[in-house]
User: What shape does this take?
Amino acid sequence: MPSTDTTETARERILDTAESLFAQRGFDGVTVRQITSAARCNLAAVNYHFGNKKSLYLEVFRSRWVPRAKRLQAHFRANLADQASMRPDAAAVARSLAHTFLAGPMTDEERQRHHQLMSREMGRPTEAFQMVAEDVIRPFFKELAELLRPALPKTVDQEGLSLNLLSILALVLYFNFAREAVTRITGRKYDKAFKDRLVDHIVTFVRNGLGCERMQGEEVT
Amino acid sequence: MPSTDTTETARERILDTAESLFAQRGFDGVTVRQITSAARCNLAAVNYHFGNKKSLYLEVFRSRWVPRAKRLQAHFRANLADQASMRPDAAAVARSLAHTFLAGPMTDEERQRHHQLMSREMGRPTEAFQMVAEDVIRPFFKELAELLRPALPKTVDQEGLSLNLLSILALVLYFNFAREAVTRITGRKYDKAFKDRLVDHIVTFVRNGLGCERMQGEEVT
DNA sequence: GTCTATAGCAGGATAGAC
DNA sequence: GTCTATCCTGCTATAGAC
Assistant: This one.
């Protein structure tokens, strides 16, 4: 649940609640009235601080999504360095990614919010996707590609590399985005045990999917 | 593009255009006015034929999504029977699934519509998901599980089986749902060549992901 | 910066003629 | 079954007091 501390400024409370509501219901599914009343401030506050509803949506990405993505990237790098000191193999990269995105440093709710916002943008890109793609995703994608490149067979071309990375992201996004559906099918809540299970599952799936040999046994964080 | 033939009744035209628009923009992103004007009929027609907007949304699933899903399932079974006459292995199941869902018997636009509707429901289930899950998805899921069960190591439990199936669906849904993002990253349009490439990629990814041995070489349809 | 009040309009839904 | 005309609610956005 977004922080609705009274010590926060109205502007910050609006950003937090707006992010949460946009993630849950999408831009069109949320009204400015719902945002301001959940943020315990006046209806006019959105227009005062952000100009209009759409600019608020963009500002959510700029000031909430992007910094969080950068923190996630930092966590990924630290986690990877813990596992594999020099040349990480594909399995290590996959585990760090899955762990960071599924069970990483943030609260469950924050993580789900993060991935739901991105999933919505992937299904129907807006200006926000443009911005985030240039500034955050593309550089990180390149970084990941360079990490994976030496771990893959030489027969894999640039496009194959991209498809493999997209597939990893597909799994991670899906298991965060479709939580309710996954819960209905498996009967499992997203508690620590299940998230660990999901990370293990994704790592195994991805490691083999990339066509690498199995590893002997890995532990992480 | 939905059929807007004048020979169709207004009711049918509304269902077709509504499905297309709901898939593109979601329930809240579409107005009844947009639907009726794109279907070239009067504003009042939605309420006359369906009662209200929400019932129209449900009827789209009942009379469009469900029958298409059943046709897809039939195509999957036929395709699988072509490949593997008796006991299909995991790779054959994966290939038939990927082919059916990514390059199957329907138009590109129809397939994308189908998966976007479902992706939206997975992210935020409504009554429609409830209905579709009971009547269509769960039985097919069971059918797939029984097909895959004998092809997997005995160490894989029921939950592992479910996770593997969910992962396959994650890949298929993702590459249909996030077409624009995939196109931006890979630079490829969804033409026949790229779809074939995607099917091959998913089959390889999944086959290995399921922890089965490699196969010697498969051809299909 | 924050509020009240309201303009101005688009939304879903309906009544009733044809 | 299909249309026009309209109701009424709820939306975004703004003006202006405090």
Observations:
- Residues 60-209 of chain A form a domain with the Tetracycline Repressor; domain 2 fold (CATH 1.10.357.10).
- The CA atoms of residues 34 and 92 of chain A lie 43 Å apart.
- Chain A touches chain B through 49 residues (CB under 8 Å).
- Residues 212-221 of chain A have pLDDT under 50 and may be disordered.
